[in-house]
Design brief:
With 506 residues, the chain is of the alpha/beta class. It folds into three domains: 144 residues, no CATH class; 87 residues; 187 residues, P-loop containing nucleotide triphosphate hydrolases (Rossmann fold). It has twelve helices and 18 strands. The strands form five sheets. It has a six-stranded parallel sheet with strand order 15-14-16-17-13-18, sandwiched between helices. It has a four-stranded antiparallel sheet with strand order 3-4-6-5, with helices on one face. Helix 2 runs antiparallel to helix 4. The N and C termini lie far apart (98 Å).
């Protein structure tokens, strides 16, 4: 039947048209979507020599069939003599046809991509293969005069080219629109190998994804003698955030975490230059986990009480002198974080310098053992006695202030005194429970003593009377000191120097 489809015939026709083109279009071009293309029909050249070469090699088998025909025998004999020259000519022609066919296939693909992406019909397409002929090295697509290609269309065409012709780690396909000459130029460009270290790539990728900086750029700032990177410079566009200490602290922690532990065992630190638009990550010697407390005095100033060793062997101290603008000390840290170790260190240093102190220890274990130290007035463990002590300390403060007023003297002329309250929240909680559940006598006494109110006055007025307050708390609260200025020490099990029996506490 004439209407019965023939799959084999349809495949053969499609393969012929795909390989050699359709003669129904102008200039031998194919007809697709009722629009002719500028891709000419493929006409192989190798059959012109391949067929004679095949006959020449097969001519001995044809001689028998040509017996009696002298002209045919003479032609076959002469053709057989030229079999090798014909073969030599045929091989490069076949290679050239393969290269031409591949180039034509590339032109067909590019023609289709341009029409689908831009809606324009190219007037001419040329494709140049690489030295091996397997991939396209360069292509030039001539567009109709005045053809307008929008950025989005060019981007879509570029993605199509990259998807169709692929790429590798060593090269990529780039598309350029030459609007003055109405053409698109595709170039196979090599990609420089990425020689960055994994740490540098990790930092760059994290900064690109975080969007905390505009246009961040990570470069190597320093390398040691072994070729190991020891510093990075992060450039960024200047912004208001870059000058904020809180923002800088968060970025410092994030960068140190991303960089990870260094091979040398040193730690990362960051130097900021927001006015110049960059920061520098560099390595510093790691702080030791244990440091023996020095027997000698840190300096000649007996009002500097050392409590820890900071970076670069810097001694951290609490200045209890009258010239200090932060006379009180607040030690903040979780349970086991080292608060008591710092308090004991400060008190033993105060004892060495002849500064008296009185302590309150509601847990009854933290300051145990300090009784009997030079200058230790008492260590109080009972909550009710602690309330009496706070009220007595308040009375001492008021008496000192009155004496300063009457005698017209400076507060620095009065002897210093340190009042210690460890675990202040536990103590205040006990006072509140006693005020609710204690007997009538205890409730009346606490109401009269008003230890919390007395403490609030001490926090504001004790400085001028020569009284220094030392507090240990797990959670900081600004209401503890009102508007008074304090030296805050945050502990989280870093290095602390313990002055008790020369043992090191963490």
């Amino acid at each position: 039947m004439s209407g019965t489809p023939d799959p084999l015939k349809d495949w053969a026709v499609a393969a012929w048209r795909d390989m050699f083109g359709d003669t129904t279009g102008p200039r031998g071009g194919q007809v697709r979507d009722d629009r002719p293309t500028g891709v000419r029909r493929f006409v192989p050249a190798s059959p012109l020599t391949a067929v004679p070469a095949a006959v020449a090699f097969y001519s001995p088998n044809l001689v028998a069939s040509a017996t009696g025909n002298a002209t045919a025998l003479d032609a076959l004999t002469q053709l057989h003599d030229y079999r090798w020259p014909l073969a030599v000519v045929t091989v490069p022609l076949i290679a050239a046809d393969i290269s031409r066919y591949r180039a034509r296939r590339w032109r067909q693909m590019l023609d289709s991509m341009v029409r689908q992406s831009t809606g324009h019909l190219p007037t001419k397409i040329t494709a140049t293969p690489t030295a091996g002929g397997r991939t396209m090295r360069r292509a030039r697509i001539t567009m109709p005069r005045g053809a307008v290609i929008r950025p989005k269309q060019l981007e879509e065409f570029s993605r199509s080219v990259e998807s169709a012709f692929g790429g590798s780690e060593s090269w990529a396909m780039t598309v350029r629109h030459d609007a003055r000459r109405d053409r698109l130029v595709i170039t196979r460009t090599p990609i420089a190998p990425d020689t960055r270290s994994e740490r540098q790539k990790s930092l760059q990728a994290a900064l690109d994804g975080a969007s905390i900086f505009s246009g961040p750029k990570v470069t190597v700032d320093s390398i040691d003698d072994s070729g190991i990177e020891t510093g990075y410079r992060v450039g960024f566009e200047k912004s208001m955030n870059a000058g904020s200490p809180g923002f800088q602290m968060k970025v410092d922690e994030a960068l140190a975490s991303l960089a990870g532990p260094h091979e040398s065992g040193r730690n990362w630190t960051t130097d900021w230059y927001p006015e110049r638009g960059y920061l520098v990550m560099r390595l510093v010697t790691a702080m030791p986990t244990r440091v023996d407390h020095p027997l000698e005095l840190v300096d000649e100033n007996l009002r500097h009480l050392p409590y820890a060793t900071g970076s670069a062997d810097r001694i951290m101290f609490w200045d209890v002198s009258t010239s200090s603008n932060k006379p009180h000390c607040l030690i903040v840290g979780p349970t086991g974080g080292g608060k008591t170790s710092v308090i004991r260190t400060l008190l033993t240093e105060a004892a060495r310098r002849g500064i008296p102190f009185v302590g309150v220890d509601p847990k009854m274990i933290e300051l145990d053992g300090l009784e009997g130290y030079p200058g230790c007035g008492a260590i109080i463990y009972d909550a009710l006695r602690a309330a009496m002590f706070v009220r007595a300390l308040h009375t001492e403060m008021m008496a000192r202030n009155a004496y300063i007023h009457q005698m017209k003297i400076e507060g620095s002329q009065l002897p210093l005194m340190i009042a210690v309250l460890d675990e202040f929240f536990i103590l205040s909680g006990k006072w509140q429970r006693l005020a609710k559940t204690g007997d009538d006598e205890t409730k009346a006494l606490l109401k009269e003593l008003d230890p919390l109110g007395a403490w609030a006055d001490l926090a504001v007025l004790a400085r001028s009377a020569g009284i220094r307050l030392l507090l240990g708390v797990q959670r900081p609260d600004a209401s503890l000191f009102g508007g008074a200025r304090v030296t805050r020490v945050t502990t989280s099990a870093p290095v602390f120097r313990s002055a008790t029996s020369r043992r090191t506490a963490r």
